[in-house]
Amino acid sequence: MFTFEGIAMTQRMTPLEIRYLPLKELKEALYNPRAVLPETSRVYHRLRRSLQSFGLVEPLVWNETTGHVVGGHFRLRILRELGVEVVPVSVVHLTPEREKALNLVLNNPEAQGRFDPKRLLAVLRELEQLPELELTGFTTATLQNLDWRPQPLNIEPISADREEIEVILCIPSPRWRQVEGELDALIRRHDLRCHVLPAGVSNSSTTAFLREGV
């Protein structure tokens, strides 16, 4: 029979240890690979508003062996700015090497579950008209993207013997930075070529630049 007690015995799972520590005792890990959030970024302000609205509902992760914060560097920075003096931390006792491994796990989106688009859309629709939507980090643009369905095009079937098929995407300038990373990933994944031009510029213009898959 598969039981949690069996897991605890074989894996030696230790009880969760929570302490309340002064912020001045918490050291940031200088190796933390996460890019620094500028104070002017939307992500930074959303996280700040979330902490002000909900409080610190998830403790920071702190390694007593080194004194480093392992998870929660952005929250630590904002809590200091808000004047918070004492916070709850989940205490771990790790070697420097295992500490770094845990840091990567906690910060790696690939190590976490992904959203089910249909369920996410349903929840966002419930919050669409409420101030809580902004606190989630999602926007009305996210909602529109999830709910978008392409209209069927009345075009003739494309011949399979054509060497290339040209697809033209028109992206609003304010959303270019949001789309750029996903577009680059698609280009690399399928080894595509993509010409990027500002609106109103012809293909023959020298202002166009080429992005290619690797």
Which architecture of the largest domain would the CATH scheme give at its second level? Alpha-Beta Complex
Give the CATH class of the largest domain: Alpha Beta
Provide the CATH topology of the largest domain: Conserved hypothetical protein from pyrococcus furiosus pfu- 392566-001, ParB domain
Classify the beta-strand content into a percent band: 5-15%
Task: Supply the number of structural domains.
Answer: 3
Instruction: Give the rounded overall mean pLDDT.
Output: 81
| Largest sheet, strands/sense/barrel | 5 strands, mixed
Which strand order do you get reading across the main beta sheet? 1-5-3-4-2
Number of strands: 7
Query: What is the CA-CA span between the terminal residues?
Result: 50 Å
User: What Rg, in angstroms, do the CA atoms define?
Assistant: 24 Å
Structural category: alpha/beta
Q: Give helix % range.
A: 25-40%
Poorly predicted tracts of residues: 1-9, 204-208
DSSP summary: helix tally: 8
According to CATH, the homologous superfamily of the largest domain is Conserved hypothetical protein from pyrococcus furiosus pfu- 392566-001, ParB domain
* SSE string, helices as H and strands as E: HEEHEEHEHHHHHEE
Name the shape in a single word.
elongated
